[in-house]
Amino acid sequence: MKTIFISAIIFLMGVNLLIAQTTPPKGPAADKAIKAYSEGKLDELAAALPALSKAFPDHPYTVFFKAFVADRKDNNVQEALRGYSEVIKAAPDLMEPYFFRAIIFNEKGMYEKTIEDMTNAIKNDDQKQSNLYTLRGEIYGKAEKNENAFADFKQAIAMSPSIVKNYRGLMNTALEINKKDAAITIIKNAVESTEAENAGVWKVWADMNLRTKQFSVSDKAFDKSISLSAAHPNTTEQPDADTYNSAAIAALNTNNFSKAKQLAEKAISLAPKNHLFYCNRSEISIQDKTWEEVYTWAQKALQVNEKSARANLLMAIGVKRTNRGDALSAEYEKKSKQLQEDGVQD
Fold this sequence. Notes:
This protein is mostly helical. The chain has four domains: about 1-125, Alpha Horseshoe (Serine Threonine Protein Phosphatase 5, Tetratricopeptide repeat); about 130-195, Serine Threonine Protein Phosphatase 5, Tetratricopeptide repeat (Alpha Horseshoe), CATH 1.25.40; about 195-270, Serine Threonine Protein Phosphatase 5, Tetratricopeptide repeat (Alpha Horseshoe); about 275-345, Tetratricopeptide repeat domain (Serine Threonine Protein Phosphatase 5, Tetratricopeptide repeat, Alpha Horseshoe). It has helices at about 1-20, 30-40, 40-55, 60-70, 75-90, 95-105, 110-125, 130-140, 145-160, 165-175, 180-190, 200-210, 215-230, 240-250, 255-270, 275-285, 290-305, 310-320, 325-340. Helix 18 (about 310-320) packs antiparallel against helix 19 (about 325-340). The two termini are about 30 Å apart.
């Protein structure tokens, strides 16, 4: 969690600290420490602490910076918790101590305390940053409070409509609490308006329709997402193996076997050590009864993972349908059943 959030928000947190109600200390030592924190320069902040501590030993900013360095530089969790808690007691209007204490609580699996601190962070966030709602939404999801998670992801989308992870969080929680229609409306409105050129949101729209078995809509949405990614190669939302595999499933369910095969093979090219993608490619060929392909791709899956129950069963089908011998087919089928009995499904 630290690596995910620290680089993205440290600058914003520093700026927010400067405009909180609690008055910051004044003078060269304070200016140097505040500047280092605001710019995310942890080593410089640590170096500035002795002078700040001498000038303002009990100031909330000093205590917070000490806790922050203990947390992010020294990995001294207990010292960080003590410091953050001390700042919260002395200066409850500062957002950052709540936020960073919440991250520690989250890492410890203490979700109720995490949610409480995130709620206070949001309350004291003068800049109204959507990523705080995103994080609280994710924590609500971990705590299985999906109604709350859904509300937070919805709020985050309203505040920052271009951030893809909010749509994905909205989709996942909506499907858990039977709010798929509400999620569909929000995501559809996005791709039809402000996010029409956002490859990541189109991918979420494709996934949503795949999971709700609207295969034709999903197929077209995957096409749009992939084409947008190709047109903007520097975007972070480049399609991965899972994207192509999901797109292949959508194409398969529209009976476009040729397209499904091409997409599945693209997934394999991106993740050649994942036997499941070979299995999926083999299964596509079952649908149009190209049995030699079933055999070929099942064989490749077994070369990657010979203990895959699914690959052994596909091999049994491929061997039988290509007339390579009923006895050999039965051997693969027997091995598949044994692996399933042993708890090996894939």
